[in-house]
Amino acid sequence: MARKALVCCFILLSTLRLTLAQTTVSPPTSAGINESRAQDAVFHSPSLNRDVHYLVLVPHDYGNGRSFPVLYLLHGLYGDYKNWDSRTGLERYAKTLPFLIVMPDADDGWYTNSVTVPGDRFEDYIAKDLVSEIDAKYRTIRERRARAIAGLSMGGYGAVKLALRYPELFAFAASLSGALNAPRDLDQLRPDFRAKLL
User: Fold this and answer.
1) I need a surface site. Which of 40, 65, 88, 97 has the fewest CB within 10 A?
2) Residue 65, CA distances (Å) to 50, 62, 95, 157 in order
3) Pairing, β 147-152 against β 172-176
4) What is the pLDDT along the chain (198 residues), one digit of tens a residue?
5) CA distance 134 to 176
């Protein structure tokens, strides 16, 4: 399963590179290959009214002064923002890709605004707070054409849902083994998720 997800992620990243790249990217220097480009960050989300973590993988040539497209990668159920980096070879696969990769933490919130728990506004956190945070903190191309969103399982559900609900934000969406049936029958299979799926 993990190998299949890695292959799908690599294909996604390669496709995104072809779609978003506007200039020819020079290969990384030998010094940049061995250095971690993953940056752990925390910010206060007004929608959740608490501090949340995210991981950003910056392009090897981020220091050149230009702006970059962004791929948001959403984790799956029982996962966290470090999963894409710690459980895959993402940093190695993406070392020459010319865009930022943002991996937010979303608990097990299904990237949805809860109707039963007012503080669980995970959809707003991603679509409003996180996108604004990344655009303000990093040199991004602040246009729809330069934003993509993808995810695994619960994150695949979230990616498709967010892209459909906010077409002005995301030009591309991908769902890797997405739990797209979650709103239909997961609440019956797992009653403890019912409130989070509404």
Assistant:
1) 65
2) 32, 7, 18, 34
3) parallel
4) 555 554 444 444 444 443 444 333 333 443 444 456 899 999 999 999 999 999 999 998 998 999 999 999 999 999 999 999 999 999 999 989 999 999 999 999 999 999 889 999 999 999 999 999 999 999 999 999 999 999 999 999 999 999 999 999 999 999 998 888 776 666 676 666 665 655
5) 23
By CB neighbour count within 10 A (0-12 exposed, 13-18 middle, 19+ buried), where does 23 fall?
exposed
What is the chain's length?
Answer: 198
Specify the DSSP class assigned to residue 140: B
* CATH numbers and ranges of domains, the chain: 35-197 (3.40.50.1820)
C-alpha span between 14 and 97 (Å, rounded): 8
8 Å CB contact between 197 and 112? yes
